[in-house]
């Protein structure tokens, strides 16, 4: 009995619902009626007609921590199309934006990519989380370059939960192996075409021309019978008048045809590609774009490009520019930004970090919150972002003093998915100027930028080891971008980076090397299976510092980790686990225990079913371990900072327990919110 809707009808006081519905089959109260989804006039949903009006909204734009092409949502009547790249934390941007960019209205997703710096992983890092967390209940078509198609194919089995609802359609090779193109058509609505080469790309979005407005009064005077004949005239067909002698032509009752609406996205990675772009613009004939979006690599924006924008076929268009030279660096985690700043000082925080640039009247910076309406071959730009622009700072958090013991920068404390308040699991430990990263969920690199600013380069140069506890996406999806950043900072240096992780992650990295520019980086990385680093076979980082893992009670190949320092004692990180007495024994007398507290105590049954811990269970582990300090972290998205349910403090002292927040810094024997953590 597929595709059936069941309605139970009940009498209403003073009204007859059957008469109200007006259907002869519904003749008895309380009757269960089966109504087929298709074919029933009384429940059939009318499809919207093409109004020939395009709405364009900017979901994400280029910034210091988001050096990839922007993501746009294009709306044509009741159809939505995503165009652009989906970087890390995109699911959070979707959730925060007032408009709905997913669900049943989403028709297709285009990923035009170009540029010598184009990295498929950076362009798709947020796609896995978005597809799984969205309400998409159908398979989504994704048109993408062949390297992205290969990357997604190799990543399908790495995410937890249901499989990716994606039908990947690779671009076609046109002139050579590195020159690809695609075309997507929706009858009676639009045509989307794209082309990609190593140094430039374009995508055009054009609607179908529409007939003019139907003049019902004139049709009546000409004797056009009411009903089906009106529709035929709107379709461009002649009809016979009521006298059965006179033919009425469409042009007699229709106004002027409304031309197609068009916008174009141009990508350019090198000033040398301008000649190709000029040749492309010369091919435009009748339908000139009302709006042109320019996605430029660093160093392209300048006088020569501005001159290109004055090309005879471009100068009357509205131009939106996406480039780092014009970008204003807005924050994703807006509420976290001022969480640890005194209320009287919050007015001094800059929401945007860059200076303002003067642009021509028809030229706008492409930034989040910008919306565009294209109709009647005119472009109307509206910017909903009214925040003031501040001055860019030159440094953020200072590096910890080498004389201090363990220093932990808490970068992400949310479980499963990011929230306005919290990013995903990530903790940076510094001891003896040796930096160790414990897990790196999606968005970890952005959090490092916010935490350290221009000092981040020094941090990356001293990064010695990354520990990945298990293969749930909220603990490892940020790894690749951190590896790319580390490689850039240590270019030319004779250093290696150790990654202690599950075996499957190592195999995945080797599979995606060719499509993500990781081939030359992998040679400098030493992968160590987490299961092989245990008590008695510790991994030594220096004469005084080593680490080893303890199997956690979670999923296959999941581990907790213990850092052991001769002078500073043990730092224990549980990651995701049920209460583990084996870990409590191994980390005896720890200087600090970072323990997950995914669920509050009233959700104990769910914690058991999902192999997580409650707050009181984390307190119990700290008690058994005799830990000197306990930091609770990895909170469910249902938990709100201001209303945590009080646990059983008789288990472990409250004054030794800290509820972690993003941006907090803990130093051995001292715990204080990092005063500079949100000056960004």
TrEMBL record:
Enzyme class: hydrolase
Top-level lineage group: Eukaryota
GO biological process: mitochondrial polycistronic RNA processing; mitochondrial tRNA 3'-end processing
GO molecular function, one term: 3'-tRNA processing endoribonuclease activity
One Pfam assignment: Lactamase_B_4
Residue stretches in coiled coil: none
GO cellular component: mitochondrion
Reactions listed under catalytic activity: Endonucleolytic cleavage of RNA, removing extra 3' nucleotides from tRNA precursor, generating 3' termini of tRNAs. A 3'-hydroxy group is left at the tRNA terminus and a 5'-phosphoryl group is left at the trailer molecule
Listed EC numbers: 3.1.26.11
Cofactor(s) listed: Zn(2+)
Domain tRNase Z endonuclease: 58-126
SUPFAM superfamilies named in the record: Metallo-hydrolase/oxidoreductase (SSF56281)
Keywords, ordered alphabetically: Endonuclease, Hydrolase, Metal-binding, Nuclease, tRNA processing, Zinc
Family: Belongs to the RNase Z family.
Record protein name field: ribonuclease Z
Native source species: Schizosaccharomyces cryophilus (strain OY26 / ATCC MYA-4695 / CBS 11777 / NBRC 106824 / NRRL Y48691)
């Amino acid at each position: 009995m597929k595709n059936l809707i069941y309605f139970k009808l009940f009498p209403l006081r003073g009204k007859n619902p059957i008469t109200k519905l007006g259907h002869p089959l519904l003749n008895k109260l309380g009757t269960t009626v089966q109504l087929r989804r298709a074919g029933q006039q009384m429940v059939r949903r009318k499809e919207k007609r093409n109004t020939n009006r395009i709405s364009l909204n900017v979901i994400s734009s280029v910034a210091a921590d988001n050096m990839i092409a922007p993501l746009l949502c294009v709306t044509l009547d009741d159809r939505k199309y995503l165009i652009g790249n989906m970087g890390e934390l995109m699911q959070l941007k979707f959730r925060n934006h007032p408009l709905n960019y997913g669900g049943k209205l989403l028709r297709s997703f285009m990923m035009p990519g170009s540029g010598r710096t184009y990295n498929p992983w950076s362009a798709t890092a947020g796609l896995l989380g978005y597809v799984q967390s969205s309400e998409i209940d159908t398979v989504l078509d994704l048109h993408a370059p062949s390297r992205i198609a290969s990357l997604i194919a190799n990543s399908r089995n790495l995410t937890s939960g249901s499989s990716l609802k994606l039908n990947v359609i690779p671009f076609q090779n046109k002139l050579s192996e590195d020159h690809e193109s695609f075309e997507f058509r929706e009858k009676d609505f639009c045509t989307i075409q794209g082309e990609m080469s190593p140094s430039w790309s374009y995508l055009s979005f054009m609607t179908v021309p529409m007939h003019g407005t139907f003049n019902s009064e004139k049709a009546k005077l000409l004797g056009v019978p009411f009903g089906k004949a009106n529709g035929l005239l709107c379709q461009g067909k002649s009809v016979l008048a009521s006298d059965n002698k006179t033919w009425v032509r469409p042009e007699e009752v229709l106004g002027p045809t409304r031309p197609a609406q068009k916008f174009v996205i141009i990508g350019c990675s090198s000033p040398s590609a301008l000649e190709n772009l000029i040749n492309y613009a010369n091919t435009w004939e009748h339908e000139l774009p009302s709006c042109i979006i320019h996605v430029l690599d660093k160093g392209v924006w300048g006088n020569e490009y501005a001159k290109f924008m004055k090309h005879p076929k471009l100068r009357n268009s509205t131009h939106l520019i996406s480039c780092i030279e014009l970008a204003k660096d807005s924050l994703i985690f807006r509420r976290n930004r001022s969480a640890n700043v005194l209320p009287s000082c919050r007015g001094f925080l800059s929401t945007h970090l860059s200076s303002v640039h003067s642009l021509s009247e028809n030229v706008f910076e492409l930034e989040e919150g910008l919306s565009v309406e294209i109709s009647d071959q005119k472009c109307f730009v509206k910017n909903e972002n009214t925040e003031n622009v501040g001055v860019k700072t030159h440094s953020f958090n200072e590096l910890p003093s080498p004389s201090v013991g363990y220093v932990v920068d808490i970068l992400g404390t949310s479980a499963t998915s990011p929230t306005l308040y919290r990013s995903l699991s990530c903790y940076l430990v510094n001891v003896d100027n040796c930096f160790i990263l414990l897990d790196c969920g999606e968005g970890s690199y952005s959090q490092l930028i916010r935490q350290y600013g221009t000092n981040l380069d020094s941090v990356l140069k001293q990064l010695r080891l990354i520990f990945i506890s298990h293969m749930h996406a909220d603990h490892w999806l940020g790894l690749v971008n951190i590896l790319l950043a580390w490689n850039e900072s240590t270019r030319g240096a004779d250093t290696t980076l150790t990654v202690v992780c599950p075996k499957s992650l190592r195999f995945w990295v080797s599979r995606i090397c060719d499509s993500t520019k990781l081939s030359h980086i992998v040679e400098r990385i030493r992968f160590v299976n987490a299961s092989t680093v245990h008590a008695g076979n510790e991994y030594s980082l220096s004469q005084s510092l080593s680490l080893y893992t303890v199997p956690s009670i979670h999923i296959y190949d999941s581990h907790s980790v213990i850092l052991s320092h001769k002078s500073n004692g043990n730092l224990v990180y549980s990651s995701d686990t049920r209460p583990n007495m084996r870990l409590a024994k191994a980390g005896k007398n720890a200087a600090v225990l970072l323990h997950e507290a995914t669920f509050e105590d009233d959700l104990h049954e769910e914690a058991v079913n999902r192999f997580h811990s409650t707050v009181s269970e984390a307190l119990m582990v700290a008690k058994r371990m005799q830990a000197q300090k306990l930091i609770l972290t990895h909170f469910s998205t249902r938990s709100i900072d201001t209303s945590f349910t009080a646990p059983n403090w008789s288990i472990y002292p409250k004054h030794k327990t800290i509820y972690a927040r993003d941006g907090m810094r803990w130093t051995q024997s001292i715990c204080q919110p990092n005063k500079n953590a949100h000056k960004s």
